[in-house]
């Protein structure tokens, strides 16, 4: 994890420019340059190599074996021995970076013509990387045994700063890399694409990948379960750096991973996820490749933004969405959660939870509060490093198991949400397959009964409700976050719609969800909901608005631009923040006019355009602004030692109005105190 501190500086960029992390120079945005920036960041934050020991576009000299003449070759990135001069004899890593269209077999730009040639020319360089954005190939150079030439061996990874190749092959190596920037997105995409394109499993590629992600998470959680008991932790989800190269090695990996999968299916931790008949149906070669990709990283140590974005990227691109369903952008989710500021004593629900984005964000929000409470003397990366300490994880897990709930009508999304919750810190058992509008009179009484028992247990543990008047979930939640399905294509059965008072005005699901959320909230409970603007503005929705005003106190209303949900769907929507009135307040509102201030705002920009491409802050003349940034992060050595490092760079800032709106809301609230 990293903490970035920004300060404005009068530096501007053209639309097609970026600033190099390594040199601070302005570069044209091209595929190869973008890929190189990702590699530099990866090698710095994940592998621990200092920027001062790197140099881009470094020229090496070598002797042409055919002519005996000295030739030159420019390599994209050279890494030198720590604190040594940038001379050819001190190069320890060579990195060749191409654009996405170049294949590793290309005769001029491929692996052999570039990386192998350069590594052969530099005696001191044992390891190298060839990357094209979507593929990463690690090589080791070894003598051929007779002293005439070199042999190159494929590796699944190469050692970072202070590591050896033997370190990577140790099953007791508990300190795997923490993914930086877009590394996890690329790993998930490479893995999914491999299954889809090479394993003949186009229909269930996502679910096969999901099974392996479950395995990886389970293996990481074993560390927290075994070490406190004095047991010696040894990874089971790992791949030796050369195991993929032989049939024997691939079989060993497959046996190890499949055995782990059977173990996790029988573990209480995942008892609510698997039915028991699931299997990993990949070839040994495919399984070894995917496991090699996933095993490099620690999923539990990754920030919620890194792993959440990576996970939701493959979920949204893979699962076919029902009409009217789409994922809420992460910046909107974060804004809505921050506005209601959930605490450890709050019971939270998303009645249309999808892949679990709101719930994971709530969990992370509370995790940060818990960590700060437990380690008040720490800040920045030193505090973030404690987010996944055993003590914090245990407290977060307890909170999640008793306080966070999700309902969704789509059984596939239920499983996807559970995986997201497992990555976020757990609480996955409280994700239920249920029609929220039909609850509690749904056609699957066993699932309804399971919900009711879980709520009853939650109340027993939290002791937050003295007099329980209903045996189900109604009236039990402090906070509700949701983006309900809406649109003309989403139909609600007449019998279900008739249960709602608002159905006399509209049977649209987004209208009925307002009343459903009201029923689920405690008196005084709060909700944050995404609604189409028609509810708030159309004349034929006047009665719906009056019902809302009679039953809720309006806390805030934020209009969103049409780009908010593009390119998924074009819809004009708003965010409404409401607080459920008590019975006395409802009665009082009917007898006399209410008078209170409501926070209202318009978000004109959300950090992206209509195509989903990022947009950045610009000056008055339209040029993109740069901000001097100081990124602080912890670099881990193989022995677990952590070193605080600082990287100074110039960064663009997304043009997103929501953070400023949130700050204005805080000022509004504080002015009322």
From TrEMBL:
The keyword Phosphoprotein does not apply. InterPro entries: DNA_methylase_A-5, DNA_methylase_N6_adenine_CS, HSDR_N, SAM-dependent_MTases_sf, T1MK-like_N_sf, Type-I_RE_MTase_Subunit. Residues 37-146 form the Type I restriction enzyme R protein N-terminal domain. It comes from the Bacteria. Keywords: Methyltransferase, Restriction system, S-adenosyl-L-methionine, Transferase. It catalyses: a 2'-deoxyadenosine in DNA + S-adenosyl-L-methionine = an N(6)-methyl-2'-deoxyadenosine in DNA + S-adenosyl-L-homocysteine + H(+). One of its GO terms (molecular function) is site-specific DNA-methyltransferase (adenine-specific) activity. Belongs to the N(4)/N(6)-methyltransferase family. This is site-specific DNA-methyltransferase (adenine-specific). It comes from Flagellimonas meridianipacifica.
